[in-house]
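Lecture 7 notes: from sequence to structure.
We start with the chain below.
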Amino acid sequence: MLSHPIVSILIPCYNAEQWIAEAIESALNQTYPHKEVIVVDDGSTDGSLEIIKTFSDRIRWETGLNRGGNAARNRLLELSTGEWLQYLDADDYLLPDKVEKQIQFLGEVADADVIYSPVIVEYHQDNHSWQKVDQIPEPPPHDPWILLARWHLPQTGGSLWRKEAIVDVGGWNEHQNCCQENELYLRLLMAEKHFKYFDTPGAVYRAWSELTVCRKDPSETYRRRLEIKDKIEQYLEARNELSQLRQDAINQARFECARLIWLFNPKWANVIIEEITSRYNYFEIVNPNISNNYIFIYRLFGFSFAERLAQFKRNMKTISFKKINLFLIN
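Predicted structure tokens for the same chain:
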């Protein structure tokens, strides 16, 4: 490894005129000096490209037809010259020392292919915004297979990626319309690339739009999520590496998906639960965010009854909240 490796900060952009300037500035303002900033405009129809052009020769950029996020990420991969890659979505931004701290950590883990860290989620609602660190909860030493199964590996910007590792697995899957980084994490793990955890968050992910593919079509999102969990299980089982801890993590993740799927497709959710309980009759819910009352009802009366009761309680809370608001207004 070079003593001061070049880091390519790669920004795909599509119709992000509200945010793109801040994303680019956060890349240029990184305290790590050995960097390049490259932007690929993916056929934006708003003012994004004009904003990108204002950065002149401080960055490299190009534009073309709209081909999708992963196609733009692969084009950025081709344009990059760095040994390490920092991907940054156009509506997100980096803290100034994000890259520098992860590169410093690389001195302790020279064999790393992916350095992953918690992400700061910035929520936007109406005229308010607030931040929360999306912690990576499993205590060290981390098992990236378990983290991937439980959906705890970070959003794209939280990681620093060795370019060679991404090239080795064929880049980003341009047919993957959601869960893109998770699908890439899966292929990297299957290729036996080394994941190393660094505990300091440095990337800020904005949760503001309901217009992404994953949010517009929850059924596609959960189909893809469950597909990744199935592939994890199949791969580890074939290699005789499916420990009980890993199997339990996969099933807990399936159960958590089923609970969310139940909100829009109870029939599908029930099929998932039936598959878990028929194959693994020892299955028990292990999740600190699920109440003991729910677990008790689930054990006595089953999944559907527990979910209907949980929905009833949610509805009652909503009604009570509205009554309180009406009382305060009047």
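Points to note: The first helix runs from residue 20 to 28. Residues 7-214 form a domain with the Spore Coat Polysaccharide Biosynthesis Protein SpsA; Chain A fold (CATH 3.90.550.10).
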